[in-house]
Write a structure and sequence with these properties.
The protein has about 375 residues and is α+β, with helices and mostly antiparallel strands. It has 13 helices and 11 strands. The chain is globular, with a radius of gyration of 21 Å. The structure holds adenosine-5'-diphosphate, 2-acetamido-2-deoxy-1-O-phosphono-alpha-D-glucopyranose (GN1) and magnesium ion. The site of 2-acetamido-2-deoxy-1-O-phosphono-alpha-D-glucopyranose has 13 residues, from loops. It holds the Pfam family APH.
Length: about 375
């Protein structure tokens, strides 16, 4: 928990207008510390602001990261304006600090940033109806097509090898060997599951190297709650959490959404009998994502979408297991076996996708027109 004095110091370095009514933790992200601030401005009402302490354990170069976000959001703002959209609601707006910088480094060395709060919109932690999931698919697909001409060489790699599953596998094996918390003996079945799926850890890297899958500017963290859905129109309006926008594979953006949103249970559900990959939701998302990408995906990419889903799910489970073995230093956890529970749901999903593999491919081919 961050102390109040530090929060006061941070807030005093921004030019927020009005009197502060509220400052409280917000959202359910696993990485940054997010606060909702509310300011009362006479004759204008209450203005909400998002204040975030960036996780510098995860993002080692916060200044470069903010440079990415400033560049990407100003590019998106222009595109959205050209297309007749509302850039205030359809992309993030960074609030500069009093010194004109997009971040503030506090006296303890933490990096903070502030965004305009996008009102009357929600980032859902679970799929409540098909239409919301479809809208999130459209939004993530559109995000990719809007950034299709973005000069990728301008982007810093905010986390090296973020979705390099082969490199993730090597880190996992090292965590098993070192076993710093003596937890490996309790998770032999999960370790075995990863070892049996080593081929999956290599396949996308090989397809990229052979030119079968092109590198694009992608979001790389396409969880359902990273897109805000308008409370009134129910349209997916704004893709948020831009920390991981980097060159990547389109099928990974697709896959990360599937592992989270097409699951019939929460990411940390303990009762694995509740976890399946729902083929109806898979179809809903496939239809929306292909439409949102607006003809940018190649035939090979569309055909490889089910593979993206399987690999991203395996990778995420492997990352949770690695973090569990390393002592829960990366993802925020609420109890000691939280990462283990998360890893188990992912592996259950991979097994379920294996059973439904033919159906997944048939669904994708229906929309490959
Ligand atoms: P994390 O990397 O920890 O997931 P996010 O940037 O996704 O952090 O923010 C956490 C949550 O805060 C989001 O899921 C969303 O609910 C909310 N949020 C973030 N930015 C905004 C914004 N500009 N307007 C409204 N809500 C936001
Ligand atoms: C993290 O930041 P958040 O909660 O949207 C993680 C993703 C994982 C996800 C698992 C930067 O996403 O890669 O898939 O948790 N983000 C980072 O829930 O590691
Ligand atoms: Mg998030």
């Amino acid at each position: 928990m961050i102390n109040q004095y530090l929060l006061k110091e941070v807030i005093s370095h921004f030019d927020f207008v009005g009197s502060l009514l509220k400052c409280e933790p917000y959202g359910s992200g696993h990485i940054n510390d997010t606060y909702l601030l509310e300011y009362k401005i006479p004759h204008m009402g209450v203005v909400p602001i998002i204040l975030q302490r960036m996780n510098t354990n995860v993002f080692k170069k916060p200044v470069e990261l903010m440079e990415n976000i400033m560049n990407v959001t100003s590019f998106l703002r222009e595109k959205i304006t050209e297309n007749g959209g509302d850039p205030e609601r359809e992309t993030l707006t960074v609030i500069l600090n009093k010194a004109g910088k997009p971040y503030y480094k506090d006296s303890e060395g933490n990096y903070w940033r502030a965004y305009h709060f996008i009102t009357c919109a929600t980032g859902y932690d679970e799929v409540k109806c098909d239409e919301d999931f479809y809208q999130s698919a459209l939004a993530f697909g559109k995000f990719q097509s809007l950034l299709a001409d973005y000069p990728a060489e301008k982007l810093h790699e905010t986390i090296p090898d973020f979705h390099n599953t082969k490199a993730r596998f090597a880190v996992f094996k090292d965590a098993v060997e070192k076993d710093v918390c003596h937890r490996a003996k309790d998770v032999q079945a999960e370790i075995q599951f990863v070892l049996e799926h080593v081929d999956l850890a290599h396949v996308l890297g090989d397809m990229q190297a052979s030119g079968e899958l092109p590198l694009r500017v992608t979001h790389n963290d396409t969880k359902l709650n990273n897109v805000l859905i308008d409370d009134k129109t129910h349209q997916g309006i704004c893709v948020i959490d831009l920390d991981t926008v980097m060159p990547g594979l389109a099928i990974n953006d697709f896959g990360d959404s599937i592992r989270f949103g097409a699951s019939t249970g929460a990411e940390d559900e303990k009762d694995l009998s509740k976890i399946e990959c729902d083929m109806h939701l898979f179809e809903v998302y496939t239809k929306g994502f292909i439409k949102g990408c607006d003809g940018r995906l190649t035939d090979e990419e569309i055909k490889a979408l089910p593979l993206g889903a399987k690999v991203m799910t395996l990778e995420c489970g492997m990352r949770f297991l690695t973090d569990y073995l390393q002592g829960d230093t990366y993802f925020k956890t609420k109890y000691p076996t939280h990462n283990l529970d998360r890893c188990r749901t992912q592996f259950k999903l991979v097994s379920d996708m294996e059973k439904k593999w033919d159906t997944m491919n048939e669904i994708v081919s229906k929309y490959n027109i």
